[in-house]
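Anyone able to model this chain together with 1,3-dihydroxyacetonephosphate?
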Amino acid sequence: MVDKKWREAGYVTEPVPADIDMKDEIRRMCKEKNAVIMAHYYTQGDIQDIADFVGDSLALAQQAAKTDADIIVMCGVHFMGETNKILCPNKKVLVPDLNATCSLAESCPAKEFGEFVKAHPGHTVISYVNTTAAVKALTDVVVTSGNAMKIVNALPKDEKIVFGPDRNLGNYINSITGRQMVLWDGACHVHEKFSLERILELKAAHPDAKILVHPECKGPVVKVADKVGSTAALLKFSQEDDAKEYIVATESGILHKMQQACPNKIFLPAPPDDSTCACNECNYMKLITMEKLYNCLRYEWPEIEVDEETAEKAVKCINRMLDMSK
Ligand code: 13P
Ligand code: SF4
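re: yes, here you go
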């Protein structure tokens, strides 16, 4: 029975007994329940370290599509759990805290997006994976930052396209491909906050550092990048490249894996425009804690549910993305 208190909170609020080893218990429950823990690179380091699989949003969807686990615990944000549930309707998909949403997904309500689509008849609808299931149900093909360019380039040059919700990613794709996709006016509250001025100050102090930028950042920040890419692409670049220092303009959780993979390199988080706040942290991703993960496995709640009709429509555009990214 799910306690009323938990429903109100959006996660299991029960304290973890002091006499247990939480990590051992989490692994034991995974084995007992045939559960797999997936985590995004933006989650806290201890969550990434205990996960069976850590990846960017494309890899997490690909992994979900092929897992034989009975339970997927998605340590990330709500839309990632929804994507897993749509791909695996017969599995139990858990997200440890239902409050872990996403400002991009929230910037694009399905009703308004539906009207936007209607206002552009004859356009193919491309949605970034950072959207709700209801928005995906209105979409022809989903993309992530890891495959957006490849998917857009695979469409005929004269195809009319509506792209949502991230205007920064959309502008970046338009600038590289020469397309004129019609853009929804949404943005991520973390990536929008990076300050070009402060990045350049940091670069002046570390002239040999290369600048790594996620395409959700604003155009002027993207312009000064040595590498633009998804979290997985930035991680890969930092491992294969021969520089010793990097300024990283994406959510700071990625530094955990970068530093683990290359302990002798220096990774500097790009500064946000407000020096008084930790704005380069995604407050939603950081809601996922070891305590919530433990309780979520223990009680098999919060569970992600997507209504059948929405899921049936949404699965098509996610599968189309998976096919086109092979
Ligand atoms: P990735 O697709 O690079 O994992 O990014 C997801 C995300 O939420 C970026 O803010
Ligand atoms: Fe959403 Fe931004 Fe957080 Fe990514 S970093 S999950 S886009 S709010």
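The chain has three domains: 4-99+285-306, 104-188+313-324, 194-269.
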